Amino acid sequence: MEALSSSFTYPPWSINVSSSIRIHVKKKITANINNLPKHTTPLTFESNPTRQVIITTQHDQIKKNNYFKNKSLLAIIFNAFDRFISTFLDPSPLRPFLDPEHVLSGHYAPVEELPPTACEVVGGGGPLPRCLDGAYIRNGPNPRLIPKGPYHLYDGDGMLHVLRISHGKPTTFCSRHVYTHKHAVEGEAGYPFVPSPFASCNGGVAASMARLLLILARIVAGKFDPLNQGFGTANTSVALFRSIGVFALCESDLPYKVKVTEEGDITTLGRHYFHESNKPFLNMTAHPKIDRETGEAFAYRYNVSPPYLSFFRIDSEGRKQKDVPICSMKKCTMIHDFGVTKNFAIFPDSQIVVNPFWVLGGRSPVGIDSGKVQRIGFIPRYATDDCEMWWIDSPGLNVLHCVNAWEEDGGATIVVVATNASKVEKIFESFHSSELRMEKITINVKAKTVERNLLSTTFLELGAVNPAYAAKKNSHCHLRPFHLRPMPPLYCHRRHLQPAPPEAAPQCHDLSSSLPLQFSI
């Protein structure tokens, strides 16, 4: 999962660390979960028995009295309706990928916040380089409150895990939620209610309509303000914008700016608008592409109404530039990631689509259009309109993440390294079963042809390259292997917060070796 997205800060060195690290934190961490079914045994990270998660659901009368005392009458009424929907309108049993008892178990069980705590390296193949001085940040979903109704793995509140490193020695480890608008209003209500595109409308027509009406009631009552303050989780990635700062991102909202303190703590500074005060925008991709030479960031957002895709640039001073609407997109595609080269931005148009009308049928608005022909779009990265946008059909290509992209032969060839979901219909039910494979995609700009080369038969995802090689030709990338069974979420490329199982060793693949798959368009 993208719980593995990470960043180095102050300053952003790019160092390949080949040794594994196990962080030993001498503190028991107990999850504050009030609504999960009862568990009698603690859920323990298998790869690190020293860090334990205990889920407790026992409520004594004092806690109940305090709950009713601290909540407004309106919040109690809204929460009661939520529980009614979950108890009487949602299907029973819930499907496994929407059942919080199933989804949030084992390695995916939530943990509480942890203030900066002294830690030490207790394992690994060798010391870290002494020149490594800063912070390692990992972002991922970690729900603060658990609903009784449907819950998807992607729904959790963003939590940042920070490892502070001083002259090659880890000093403190810290875990903090990103304090989003969702985090604030749900904390006030004492119940999770902010809608999820993956789970909220998956319980049938009656439950979906009831939840939408209840959300509308909360908005009218002033308990929720998604239009002005967003509703995202900031749980997907971490990005370092030069001269601007560090941000936690998700694609349903704007980024939240965060700051690592000298003590190793991390604080949320607020939702960031990139100086767009006159016409504030609502969301952007969780995977902006940053040019380290110019300091610019290239980003986009997709919408459920025209224009379905908008491309834009953030200059080196952190100011958002004018949108470039992509009018050749006729429907909303969930474009999770894209590529940027020296001269182009590259957009994969996959079968993962967004259709708000599906909610009326009691299903998620995000799904798969199996009849759609996939394609790849190219636009000059400094374009002022979409008149130079061009597309190439590429059947069978459902790109999820772009590892890197670059140009060859003086711009006559574009190369993209990306993951393709071979079984895209499984992507929301079981991320591990969607058969994500790394491909090298070569585009002949003049002939408008696509050649696809399979880089490995192993299921690979979450690829990363040295940021110094972004938009430049590189020979190796670091990837995470995926298996049919979930892997521990704290395993991360060549840097680990816990040691990975032997069969999950990081894969370093040579991009020059491949198996040919060619399409001529």
Summarize this structure as a short list of keywords or feature phrases.
521 residues, mainly beta, six-stranded antiparallel β-sheet, five-stranded antiparallel β-sheet, 6 helices, 31 strands, 32% strand, globular, disordered N terminus
Structural class, please?
A: mainly beta
Q: Would you identify the regions where 5 or more consecutive residues have pLDDT less than 50?
A: 3-22, 26-68, 484-521
Termini separation: 33 Å
Q: How many distinct beta strands?
A: 31
Count of alpha and pi helical runs: 6
Shape: globular
Oligomer: single chain
Average of per-residue pLDDT values: 81
- The radius of gyration is 23 Å
Helix proportion: 10-25%
Share of residues in strands: 25-35%
Largest sheet: 6 strands, antiparallel
Q: Which strand order spans the largest sheet, edge to edge or round the barrel?
A: 1-7-8-9-6-2
Summarize the structure in short.
This protein has 521 residues and is mostly beta strands.
